[in-house]
Structure formats: C-alpha cells, structure tokens
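ugh finaly. both done.
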Amino acid sequence: ENGKSARQAFVACWRFVQGWLQHADPVSGLIPRNLTSSPFWNAQDSAADNYPFMVLSTYYTDRGLFEGRMLDMLRAEGRYCNRLGHLPDDFVFATQSLREPASPLDKLIFGASEYAKDGLLPITELIGPSPWTERMLELLDEIWRHRSISTEVGKLPATSHEVGGELMQTLSRMYWMTGKEEYRQWAYLLADYYLDHHLPTLEAELDLDDHGCEFLGGISEVYYLAAYKDPDRHRKWKPVIHRMLNRILEVGRDEHGMFVERVNPRTGKQLRKTLTDNWGYDYNAYLVVAQLDEVPRYRQQIAAVLSHLPHYNDYPWEGDIADGIADSLESGLNLLNRIPEPQAVSWANHMGQRLLAKQRDTGVIEGWHGDGNFARTALMFALWKTQGTYVRPWRADLRLGAMREQDGTLYVSVEADWPWSGTLHFDIPRHAEFLHLPTDYPRLNQFPEWFTVAKKTTYDTDQGPLSAATLRSGLPLSVTPQKPYRLRLRKH
C-alpha cells in the first residue's frame, strides 16, 4: 500500500517537471514566474519556490534531466540574472535582459534571501554539498556584504521577520556545515536585534502565517546554536525565549491548539482567526526549545495537536489551494517524524491524497510558482512512504514501499508492471553527514529522516548480514510482475 502511494507521488513530481519545462524560455532555458501574466524569471518566486523542486524531483525520477537541464538552469540563472555582485534580479524572456534599469537594495536582498533559504537550502539538506550549495553561499556572503540598515546592534541587511528569519535559518545551518565563524556571529547579531530590542510579543501585531513564521523557526535555530556554542548567550536568551513562546501559546491558537494567522500579542486579540497552514513550522520552535531546555509541556501540547488533526481533514488551507495543503501536510510530517501520533498518520494519508488530486493532466498544478511547493511536499510524502529508500533508475510503473516496526525492523517491497533491474538505495543521517549538526532538530523545509543507515554498522537481512557500506552503495535487484522483491532489514 505504501508503494502505491509513493508511486503516485513520485509520478506527480515527474509530471510536474515535464509540465513546467514545456513553458521554459527557449533561449535562456529558465521558467517563468507564472503561466499567465509574468513571462520572466525572478529570485523570490521562480528561483526560490519552483525551480529547486524541479531539481529534487529529477534527482529521484530523471537523472538525465538532473545532471543536464537542471544544472544548465542554475548556470543560466547566474549568468543572466545577477544585478549587484551575486544578487539576482528579474530577467525578462522577450528582451533577454533585466526587467528594470535598476532595483532597490532591499528588493535584491529579499529575493536572494528567499532563494537561499526556501530553495537552495532544502536541496543541500537532501542531496548534500553541490553546485546549488555554492550558489547559496555566494548569495549569503553577498547579502552581508551589502548590509546597510543601522540598528542597535550594528548594520544588518534586513530587519523584517521574514527576511531576518530566513537569514537566521540559513546562517545557522551553514555555520554548522562550513564552520565559518562569520555565519555564527551574523546569526547572533540578528537574534540580539530581536530578543534584546524588538521582541515580537511586545509589538501590536505578530504574523504566524506566511511569512512571519520564518522568525520563530529562525530564532529557534540560533537559540539551538547558542546552546551548543555559547552557553552564556543561551542562558541570557532563555527567559526571553520562554516568555515569548508562552505568550504566543496563550493568544495565538484555537481550541485544538492550531495557530491562527495573526495576533496582537499586547492585547491578546486575534487579528486574523483563519488558521495558518504554517502551524507546524511555528511548532518546530517549541519542539527545539522543549529538547534543549527540557520543557515537556511543549512536546505534550504538540502531541495533543497531532492527535486532533483529523478534525482538520477537510479544512480549506489558504482557501483550499495546493500550496496551502502542501504547507499544512509538510507541517504535520516534520512533527510526525518526531512524535509518531496514530491520528496524525491517518490525517497525513488523507492530506496526501488531497494534495495529489490538485494536479492537472498536463503536469502543471495551478500554473504559478507555488506549484513547486506541491512538488516539495509530494516528494516528502513519497519518501515517508518509502522510509527514505529510493531506486535507480526510477520508472513510473515501479512501486517501492517501506514500513518500520517499533523495534526498528524495516520492511521493503518493490513491485513493477514490467521486468526491471536496478539498485535499491537507503537514506543516511544527512543532518550529521551533510550539515554536521549535533542532533536532527526540527527545522523548516527540511526533508525528514525516517530509516537511515549509519556508518560502520552491520544489518541482518533475509539475504544474510550486510554491511552499511554495501547498503550505502546500493543493493542490486531485479523484479518481474510475477516476482516482486521483498527485504527485511534490522540492525545487528
């Protein structure tokens, strides 16, 4: 059953890429912002939300496209779109030139921040260091090279919750990955600005939806960084962080614990009572703090929310568009990865089908940059159903499914409509091996790890003991319609 669901989701991602590539500019190879009124590529939409998930879709379903046109688009974007140093701007297909004679610095920084965090960071999280990582690092360095806003803590590139939150997330993870000290200090500067001088819960308006939710995720990542690398700073921030999170819990939720879109933290009034599809992104921060500071109450409240998810089976997230369903499902999957609540499993299965039903037969979903978010979450859904396993070469008739028992035993099934031969691959502890994180703390737009093969470990299987090195290199296998492949695997 998981194999059927995973096949459906992988096929949806594959078709999404084919549908959008039919609309690519024949000269530059870049895709438009949308298919109705924006025949240009831009950083905050085309590059941040759509293109990266074409990259990841092809990584699993079409290696030729992944190594060909996807890399070509990255090179074209850097060649055609850079406006100020490495900061990109809008590129118009009709004129093969930048859309405006000049653009304000804050627009360029916003676009680069969106591209880095929403798009290039998830690619790096899932596949490891790559040319897309190199592009992210040059954007990050260029953003800070052009910081110009004077604040109480010095010059910053931005002070909005959205851009500040995105930068805190990207800087934190890239510090762990690269060890570059500037990234840690820049992340601390942003956190000091908010926690010491502009605490969101002392303001008259706090957005818990797109894109204010970026702040809670960002501040929790810098807090995590300080807990491991600057204990004095962690102690100083601790009471402030706890007061802020507690106040948001008091004023920002419905009766089942689901966050609303906007509140006035001073008065407690809910300014926009529509539920935010980013509810799980907000709760990531609580789970981080619960783990760091041993606050079981936060984890218990998240578990309660997960148990109530079937109440929201048919809630019209963002008016029932695919992007809203995708964000809500991603919210749940990332938390479900840490808190395996049975009610949340049934909800996630239902939401996965709601999401996949949004795709048109052309492969396009709704014809705007949010289609990439559909693919991002469809891919997350597929990898949940395969427990992170995947096959090469992929084919549309393949049904790869997996499940894991409470004792850690993994069961894998591969079926096909026609004879197929290839290799079965397993996920690894990406948080440790790619990003060098001390633990796999919850964070926005990560791809959850389900079953991972650790180094220097032996596994008992139906085929006898297998080493981690053997599993990591890929297990050769063949299937026919009459003879599916089955594997049972457990740590020795």
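ok and the 2nd:
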Amino acid sequence: IDKENYIVMLAQDVTDARKMTEQLQQQANHDELTGLPNRRAFSSALQAYVHSSDKSGDSHLLFLDLDRFKIVNDTCGHAEGDRLLVEVSQLIKGCVRTSDVVARLGGDEFAILLFGCYQEIAYRKAEEIREAVHRYEFYSTDELFRIGASIGLVSIDDSGKDFTDLQPIADAACYAAKEAGRNRVHVVVGADNKVAEHRGDMRWVQRLRDAMDNNRFVLFGQRIEHLRAQNSPEHIEILLRLKNTEKNDLYLPDTFLPVAERYGLLVDLDKWVICNLLSVLNYLDGSLTPEQSYWVNLSGASLGDTEFCEFLVDKVTQSGLPVGTLNFEVT
C-alpha cells in the first residue's frame, strides 16, 4: 500500500471510529423507541442543573404517568402500545420549548424539565400537556382509545433538595394525582401530606420486599381453645409478624398489611407464608398427629389469582401432609 492510500485508509478508520462512538453515545443516552433522552440522560441533565451556578428564574420538574395505557397494551398488543408511546412523546414535545427537556423514563412514564419559569407558568404548561394527552385519540383495529395523564409538579429551586431527593418527590406527586382521580396535575407546595404519605409507603414497600427476600418475617402459632369441650382437636392459627431490626422487636400486621394491600404485595406475602409454613410442617412431620390442624388466612387477592391457586395446589400436593392438616380462611 502506498503512502497516500495508507493515509486515506487511516483517515477513513478514524472517521468510522468517531461515527461508532457517536452512535454508541446516542444509544446510551436515548430511548430506543421514542428517541427521547432516557432516564440516564435525564438524570444527568437534572443533576447538572441542580449544581449549576448559572440559573435564570425558577425551574420545575414534571413526572407524567399515562392513565389507561395498560388497556391499550392488553387489548391491542405491545406493538400498538409502542406506537401510542411514540405518538404521545411527540405530543408532549410539541407542548414545550426546545430548551426544555422531555425524557422517557421507561414504560409509560415521562419526565419534563421546564427551565426558567414561575410556578404559575409551569402549572399552565403541565395543564396544557395534560389536556393535549386527554384530547388525544388512538385508533387501532377500528377501535378508538382515550387515555389521560397524571402529572406531578415540583419546584426544583424552592425544594432545596439534591438530585436524589427530587425524583422521589415528583414521583410521589404524580401518584397523588392518580389517587385523586387521575387525569390531573398535583403541585407540591410546602409540607405536602399526600406526597409525604406516598414516600413513606414506598419505604414500606421496599422494606416488605426486602423482608420477603431475606426472611425477616416470622410465623407464630396461636392455639384456638374450645371453651367447653375437653381434649378437643388442636387447632392452631398461623400469624404473621415482621422483624423490626432497628428496635429488635416485631411489627404487627396492622402496620404493614394496609401497604401490602395498596401496592399489590398480598399475593407475594401469602406465597411466603405458605412456603415457610410447609417447610416447618415438613420438618415436624414425624411429630404431627391427626388431631392437629393449622389454619392460614388467605387474602381475596390471592384467591382471585389463577397462578397463585395453581401454586397453592402444587405446594400442598407435594407436601404429602395428611388431609386436614392445612386449612385456609378467607380474610
């Protein structure tokens, strides 16, 4: 290869390498479906703004979650659901300035950074986005679908929070909008009780998941005594408690079950109870008598779950316990 051709080939290799690097950076920072910045890029933009010394006016963070999107996905399939997300992403972009940042965080969740505007203007912009999504009509296989948007709005400058605190606050505000009836905007003002309650719930959700993963729940057996009959069969009701690792005591069910019900964890909790109870009973198999029976509360959510019912039948069948050893009550 002569010198000139070698230089041309080397220059082409450098150009190709630069294009590949730019392509990889684009893929790393943008959502593949919508082309919007992804969670990583949005986090970087928010982080940069929070720590920036060059700020002009107030700025606001919006979290947006689509209402009734799951209906489209379940009815028409994921391909149509993806088409809806692409159209909605363009709809949102059309409502904001080019200087603002619109990102898709995942699923049907979007985030918007509105730079340099007072809260009243930010609220009007959030309402404009909400109204645009509310008016949007999605046609698929001769069917018309209407969705909506629940939006949480928080001031970045007034919060005095770091980046890691801003996202949970905006997410909690978005959830508060859903709890209030969906298709509305919830603005975080001062000590927002709804937002604080949701953030507290989220900490409990994490605590419950961690407890199931690391066996921090405890099973208790409470004997049910017949008040008149003597020498009656032994009935034992199974009770669930949660270890409080900070105070070395136990949480009662009324502390954590409402959160488990609100956030769809009852089925997982019931599975944990069944697996661990059967493990104990199998260990005690040699000492079990026909007069002993154990009673377990099952949630309505579990009984209405086909997968759970199949799981329960399989587990009880595999246990080989005598008929009548394990019994179930509906809460």
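summary for the 2nd one i guess: The first helix runs from residue 3 to 29.
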